[in-house]
Amino acid sequence: VFSVVQPGPPIEAFALNKECVDDPFEKKVNLIIGAYRTEESQPWVLPVVRKTEIMLANNEKTNHEYLPILGSAPFSTAATAMLLGKDSKALKEKRAFGVQTLSGTGALSVGSRFLVQHLGAKHFYYSDPTWENHRLVFQHAGFEKGFAYRYWHAGKRGIDMEGLLEDLSKAEPNSVIILHSCAHNPTGCDPTLEQWVQIAAVMKEKKLFPFFDSAYQGFASGDLDEDAKAVRYFIDQGFELLCAQSFAKNFGLYSQRVGNLTFVTNDPSTIPSVLSQVTIIVRGLYSNPPSHGSSIVSTVLNDPELFQEWQGCIKTMSDRIKKMRAGLKERLVKLQTPGSWEHITSQIGMFSYTGLTPAQVQYLKTKHHVYALKSGRINMAAVTTKNLDYVASSIHDAVVN
Ligand code: PMP
Fold first, then answer.
1. Residue ranges of the chain with pLDDT lower than 50?
2. Residue 148 needs a FRET pair 20 to 30 A away by CA distance; which of 23, 66, 257, 290 works?
3. Belongs to which family (predicted)?
């Protein structure tokens, strides 16, 4: 019966990653997958995470019972407070809540299904470009149609605000707009607060529904509040919204699938119905989420000392990335690589949208075994002082040849 199945297209990042892993070349550099690497190019288990895991393992009370369908309440309460801020009016007015999900992807998946099934959402809008999974997740949720809104201006190497505002202003009322709350993936270009004000104004006028995607809170600037300012501004403006939170990057818990889906409503009396419907969605999808990762995050967020230590870890990661950005730009300028490289340091977060063409990216791979996405996106967190010279000279060679 399976002979009718045709192969689907490969998922670029994972297919390319396999190619890189299989490449025997000693000096190869993997700038594909968005995961933090140490100076030794190794994955990093945050010391505070390791410590908390040991503490939990040694606690006689730790067990492997099922979590409730909507996950751990101490976790989702702490995660929601981290997003909205301790002084959040929405929290004080008890009109915001979170549910634990399978990392950021799971939060997007549950949230988008909820919007289709219970709010009758039909259209979704994603930035051009965006994280390549947004479209797939929202299509699977049952949206009738997805549209791109302009975001990246290649000439300016920045945000195409005019195009963005024009595209949003043409969206049908009740369309769902996916917004990256910080560290836009793949461009690394975030709107300024003034630009968020403009985006919010158009969305309010056109009655568009914001679905924020917060995959990098704290990881982008090193400051949890700074990285949540767009979401908080929208709430201050009276928007009802959803926000998908991932703890993959900021806790280094990629495989543990720790996420939270925050709902903000203006009418707290709607919450029991919403919760009951989300419960049914999750029950039919995966029944209940895993507990290991969320208990680590919950323990750290709810303990002032561990929280402090975690903030130090976030800073270590974001500072090292900033240093690598500066180092890469400095080398490209020194090598007199044609073009401007200002954007390497003005972009924020894990990725740099280098502006390299698909042909240059291909050249980087075949000639120098430096692997990047076709779009020219590179993972800055995989650049180290040890491979910086090699990466810079390879990029230089790809640009001049
Ligand atoms: N949104 C964006 C923009 C991302 O970059 C990512 C991670 N690559 C995610 C969501 C979700 O990742 P995860 O499911 O691993 O939390």
1. none
2. 257
3. Belongs to the class-I pyridoxal-phosphate-dependent aminotransferase family.
